[in-house]
Amino acid sequence: MAVSISRDLSVTLTDSSNDKLADRQWLVKESIARGEPKALGVSEVMVGVLVICFAAPLMAGDVTEVLNFGVPWWSGVMFIVSGAVAIVTEKHTTLLAVQVCLAATALAAVVSLVAVIIYFVDLFSNPETGCTSDSEETGDCNGHQQFATAFSRGVKSSLLVFTVVQTVISFFLSIFLFREKKKFTPYTALNLSAPPTPTTTGFPVMN
C-alpha cells in the first residue's frame, strides 16, 4: 500500500499488489503463447481435414469396422474442433478459454485412442486377399478384389498414421494446458481491463 500527498493536501492511496498480480498474470499469458497452441491447433485442423479427405475413397469399398462406426468422420470433426479451439485460445487467453481448450484437447486425445484401436482391429480382421498359384489355375483369383482390399488397407494404414500423430499432439497439448491452468488460476480474480482506481481523500486547504 502506497500513500502520496499532493500539493493541495489530497491523499492518494494505491495498492501495488494489484500491479504485481497483473504482471504475473501477463507472464502466465505469455507462457501459454510460447507453448504455441495456435501452431498445434493448425496441425490438428490439418490432420482432421486429411482424415476426412482420405476416408472418402473407402465408401466405394467393402463395409468394414471403420465404416460401420464412421471412425474417420467423427474423429476428423473432433480434430478440427479441437484445433479451432486451440487457435482461439492463443488469441483470447483467459481461464475460461484455457479450460475449454483443455477439455476439447483431452476429448480429442481420447477419441484418437479409440480410433487407433478400431483401425488396428479393422486391419487385423480384414487381411489382404491374395492370389495363389492354385487359385490362378482354377480361375478363382479375383484380381479386382485383390486390388480393392490392398487399396483399402493402404488408405486405412494412412488414416492410422494420421490418427497416431493426432494422439501425440493432443496429449502433448493437454499436459501443457493443464500445467498452465494451474499457474493461471490464482490470478483469475484480477480484472486486467479495469485497473484499480486510486483512492483520494481531500482535506481542506489551510489559508
TrEMBL record:
The keyword Iron-sulfur is annotated on this UniProt entry: no
InterPro entries named in the record: CD20-like (IPR007237), MS4A (IPR030417)
Location in or out of the cell: Membrane
The name this protein goes by in its record: Membrane spanning 4-domains A12
Family the UniProt entry places it in: Belongs to the MS4A family.
Principal location: membrane
Topology class, membrane: Multi-pass membrane protein
Pfam families: CD20
Top-level division of the source organism's lineage: Eukaryota
Keyword Transmembrane helix: yes
Segments traversing the membrane: 39-59, 71-88, 95-120, 159-178
GO cellular component: membrane
Keywords: Membrane, Transmembrane, Transmembrane helix
